[in-house]
Amino acid sequence: MEVVIAQDAAACGAIAADAIARVLDRKPAAVLGLATGSSPLAIYDELAARCDAGLISFRHARGFTLDEYVGLPADHPERYRNVIDTVFVSRVDFAPGAVHGPDGLAADIPAACAAYEEAIGQAGGIDLQILGIGTDGHIGFNEPGSSLASRTRIKTLTRQTRIDNARFFGGDVDLVPTHCLTQGLGTIMAARHVVLVASGRGKAEAVHQLAEGPVSAMWPATILQHHPHATVLLDDGAASRLQLVDYYRETYLSKPEWQGI
Ligand code: GLP
Asked: To bridge 221 with a disulfide, which of 52, 90, 104, 210 should be the other Cys (CB 3.0-4.6 Å)?
């Protein structure tokens, strides 16, 4: 796992955008894993700016979102499929229908989850997966206790996650859905490159566990220690509890610029 401590969220966004640009250069029809949440916003802003400037194109690319609330109406602004359209997809040049998400309104949820896994496989798997992290160490919506080998499925949200996400629902935790569909930890582990971004001291403990704790279902993100190509992009706040912080800084500084993450 590579840990990179950047100056701020915008710098993290630029580093991740560089990695995505390299993937698209090599493979214009690349498959991207898209995450919601505030952490990846700087990545999407940077990609939208580069697309506007004609430096990058998603014309042949495809996208799969990480997770979705169960039961939010199709036009609800907090439905993740709508959120990702607003913050990213509508700002770049994806072809119509190129971005998919798990169907939180499906009548047959297990079948919808299986179909989602199938669709990712048919697309050739995810080349680069963008991730945030919850304060309890969840990635996607894989809450503590999730199977480390799980695939896309329905999960019950923890009270902590619903409290954390209430800010998107007018501060009312009771308006936050109780269930979600999420790519599993096994699904995320199958992506060829995973780029996790975190900012602020509120994420510091989760980030410490992710990079330096024992691998455990209690901190689901720790499974990424087993990933052959995982990059963790942090600001100073999110890095503030790391034991090996000086080592990570030195390692990144001594890396040749062309190598990227
Ligand atoms: C939600 C999402 C996660 C995201 C997490 C952190 O729970 N399902 O994918 O990583 O929030 O969000 P934020 O980046 O806003 O802190």
From this structure: 210
